[in-house]
Design a protein that fits this description.
The chain is mainly alpha-helical and 234 residues long. Helices cover 50% and strands 9% of the residues. The chain has nine helices and four strands, in the order ααββααβαβαααα. The longest helix is centred in the last third of the chain and has 23 residues, at 155-177.
């Protein structure tokens, strides 16, 4: 209950605080790319329920086909959209999803239904026991380290094999230690990370959760990610 009250207060205040940014992003998308400014993405939320998550559109309209994972050089992303993605401004419409109770300020980031259905193990599905979040330890690590591991030639394969397992492990660690204070530290770290990346920083130290996350991966009864990726043709 306290977390929900916190989410409502913070999301309402953030919508008011960032309203000029929201307006600039809205008109920036509308003026530089044909199509709607808001993209409605299908994501898996609490209890495995598929819901609609809102983002500023960053890809050309009609380019929804292709990999569900976006590489750093993805040609589907237009210029203003690329800026919005780097600064995470494209995620701000999710403050509305938080306000109405579909998401939380802090919690495991929601994934595309295809990723959950094909690759989540039983233990990974524990991240679906709570409301998905705007930010989490796993999403911060992905934000700071994805450029080191994500292959633009096959972003989904590299994401599932190299980034998703540690992302899930870190979010499972978050669930073990979840508290209001922990949420506040994640919010602060998210803001600082966005600022540093906006200023051009590219190298980041491993987060404090990484040791426990790797230990969880090592001692899990089954892998956190079911690597059922299609085999190369011989």
């Amino acid at each position: 209950m306290a977390k929900r009250v916190f989410d409502v207060i913070v999301s309402a205040f953030a919508i008011f605080l960032f309203s000029p940014v929201l307006l600039l992003a809205y008109f920036g998308v509308r003026l530089t790319s044909s199509g709607p400014a808001i993209y409605c993405a299908r994501r898996v939320g609490r209890g495995g329920e598929v819901f609609t998550m809102h983002k500023f559109r960053t890809m050309h309209a009609g380019s929804g086909t292709g990999s569900v994972i976006t590489g750093s050089k993805d040609s589907r992303v237009f210029l203003v959209g690329r800026i919005l993605r780097v600064l995470k401004i494209d995620e701000l419409p999710q403050l509305y999803d938080i306000l109405i109770g579909r998401m939380s300020i802090v919690g495991p980031r929601p994934e595309d239904p295809k990723i959950v259905a094909q690759y989540y193990s039983a233990q990974s599905r524990e991240t679906l026991n709570v409301a998905p979040g705007l930010s989490s330890p796993g999403s911060i690590h992905y934000y700071t380290h994805s450029h080191l591991h994500l292959d633009d030639n096959d972003p989904e394969r590299s994401y599932v094999a190299k980034l998703l397992p540690i992302k899930l492990a870190m979010d499972l660690v978050y669930l073990r230690h979840a508290s209001l204070w922990y949420d506040l530290t994640i919010i602060f770290k998210t803001a600082v990370t966005i600022l540093l990346i906006g200023l051009g920083k590219r190298q980041f130290a491993e987060p404090p959760e990484i040791s426990e996350a790797r230990d969880l991966m090592e001692h899990a009864e089954t892998p956190l990610v079911c690597l059922t990726l299609p085999q190369e043709q011989s």
